[in-house]
Amino acid sequence: MTSNRAASPARQRWTATVERVRDAGRTFTTSSPARFAVLVFSSLILLFTALLSLPAAAADGRHTPLADALFTAVSTICVTGLSTVNMGEHWSPLGQVIIYIGVNVGALGVLTLASILGMAISKRLGLRAKLLAAGDSNPLRAHGGPVNEGQTIRLGEVAQLLRTVALSTLVIEAGLAVLLYPSLLLGGVDPLTALWEAPYFAAMSFTNTGFVPNADGLAPFAHDYFFMTVLMAGVFLGSIGFPVIFTLWRHQWHVRRWSLHTKLTLITTVILFFAGAIVFVSLEYDNPLTFGGMDAWDTTFQSLFLSAMTRSGGFSVVEIGDLHGSSLLAGSMLMFVGGGSASTAGGIKVTTLAVLALAVWSEAKGRPSVQVFGRRIPSDVQRVALSVVAWGATIVAVSTITIAQITKAPVDQILFEVVSGFATVGLSTGLTQELPDSAVYVLAATMFMGRVGTVTLAAAVAASSRSQLYSMPVERPIVG
């Protein structure tokens, strides 16, 4: 009897402690969802850094240096694809499995992943958490700006969106793996190894990561156009974004029912895809190290493949370091734009570019508002788009200058690597594997900021949003 009475207060104290921790977690999740999202990604990176540092994760059975383990963890969770080591040779089967799991976790997206974990803590999605999850398809929702509920995802559809994310990831990767398996067999890969490499390639294409499980990369499949086309299809599906997949799944080919976000994403993506291919052909047709030694069909296909990979794919057949400096600059511009919002791609996003282009066109035409497809784009959306570009350009500029000062390497190569990291693309001139540890940490931070997103990062560090009940007098400075 005495022991039971003594244990009762201890049990009560333990229960009270658990409740306080649960309440604190619920409060933090609902009151500061952006910070919680950043915390989730940071924790995942630390976890996978520890896992990749294990001797069993390396092929030689030794500890992987901290800089390499951390960089690979960031590149994995941020689904970037850059690496300081040879991915096909350095990691053991266990290490490859860890990376495979990491890219699929990272592909869920920082906001979607944070929402799912928030549901596990609070048992339900509160209003602010719903705003956060919806903000994955529209950054204005996280800022509390006026939003037309007809565009992208309504709050009541958040749970359905989360289910769509998980289901579409599973179905699309499984379908890609089935299509890739015969090509691997024809390419000389034994059936058992192909059972592993097929889902690995499928995951790396849909998540827009670009890691390869073999030391030779895509070289054995350079002329297997079916294999390469499947990879491009996976990259395209991953880069258009889950809200677009959600809309296409609901309305299919009923174009008039598509949201403005879906229309702008698809149109801008297609335009950049073909425009990028034309640019690469124009700049590289006489380069004997890249397209100069190919026939017309190979040149056309490889230029399309390279353009598709700048959406954030990260796969490459030609040596990126062999491209002309003009091609590296063009590739940097394409990578900086990236893919669609709430997608596995990075960059400033194609809708950001579309909104700014429409704003410039409207200003040139003297129109009082930005209009497209019978809809008016409000000024707050334009301000967010401008902010995203400004923050992205600042991050790229600071990282480029810092790494240039550390390494003294050619600026065009450094800029390409930095933009590839910021936009989570993964294409590399080979410079990343030669960087000293200090530059590796700078590039890792760039990848993290690029994946988390400039809007989310800004919201995470902001103390709070304050309402202003008055307005200042208007005065117009001279611009231009």
TrEMBL record:
InterPro entries: Cat_transpt. Keywords: Cell membrane, Ion transport, Membrane, Transmembrane, Transmembrane helix, Transport. It is a multi-pass membrane protein. Pfam families: TrkH. Its main location: membrane. One of its GO terms (biological process) is metal ion transport. One of its GO terms (cellular component) is plasma membrane. One of its GO terms (molecular function) is monoatomic cation transmembrane transporter activity. The keyword Transmembrane helix applies. It is found in: Cell membrane. The keyword Transport applies. The chain crosses the membrane at residues 36-54, 97-121, 161-181, 225-249, 261-283, 333-361, 381-402, 439-463. This is TrkH family potassium uptake protein. The lineage of its organism: Bacteria, Bacillati, Actinomycetota, Actinomycetes, Micrococcales.
